Amino acid sequence: MFRMIPAALTKKENYMDRRNFIAGVLGAGILTSPFRAFSQAPLVAADAHSHWGMDAWGGNGALNIGDGLREEMLKAGILLVAMKVIADFPQLSLRGGSTVGQEYAAPGMLHKYFLAMASGVKARAAKDGLMVVGTRADLDSVITQRKPGIVLASEGGDFLEGKLETLEEARAMGLCHLQPVHYRLNELGDISTVEPKHNGLTAFGKDVVRACNRLGILVDVAHCNAAGIQQIIEISTKPVIYSHGWVTVKAPPAYNNNFARAIYIDQAKQVAAKGGVLGIWPVFTKNPEDFAKYLLTVVERLGAEHVAIGTDHSGVPRSALSGYSDFPRVAAALAAGGLKSSEVDAVMGGNYIRVLRQAMDV
Q: pTM for this structure?
């Protein structure tokens, strides 16, 4: 989720320039082809981070999955969307959406909220004919039968309230993608946007990472500070994901509003070296073609097998993508920019599917 990004982040120096990018390949006449026009195999498109249908800006955190999501996914060739419940939303709402980390939370409040929202996500998905992917068999069914589905995910481990047994409860509900922290300085560790207090993860946070590996939950390092990301990379026995954000060649400050949310290229390479994936935001680009150009710069640095898309739909006030209907334009632009069809498929969703499958293999 996106809040209060400073305008300075849109400056060119905060992006990695792709050398020798072929001028003119992103012409309008070649950007309307469907995925299958350049894909040898059925494309597996996915969104690694979404709040689709959430009234984040209305202030109530309501999710309205089912009101057109399935149709959008089918039209754009998208088979899987990681639907994030914002685990600290009640507290953010009480603070007016402030990014300031706050340790306090009324006992049981965040746990109760998570249970209600997770149940709501599952109910609305079922109503709209979207499979909730909670097991490896579910994932295989989505891929082989081309059934659109969602991944029940959590943006923050705040709902755990310091209890590992609650993670097991959430896994039984179908949770299979967990981001330990968000905007609240919680029991798991430090966040990137507030002065650190735990030197990365807490002892409990480290236990949660190990438990995720054991239970078949994909670990997401987004919103963690650099120390926390490093510890997760070292602890996790499975590849991890940075589901939404951007890569910078300049080391981000220790904490400084949302600029600190960027992942430094050296650390991004460590995520990739262990088989992980970087989900790139379409926030600081102008349109689908410009977004594809930035994706290509990250592919150049990390390899096509380590790049994905995390739209943060309904969690950002602006985006290069007006909706999932823009996915084919991104895919066509990636192909025009020189990626092979298999590489386009990987970036557009295959990489997210891969790390999710690897996490589920227990």
A: 0.88
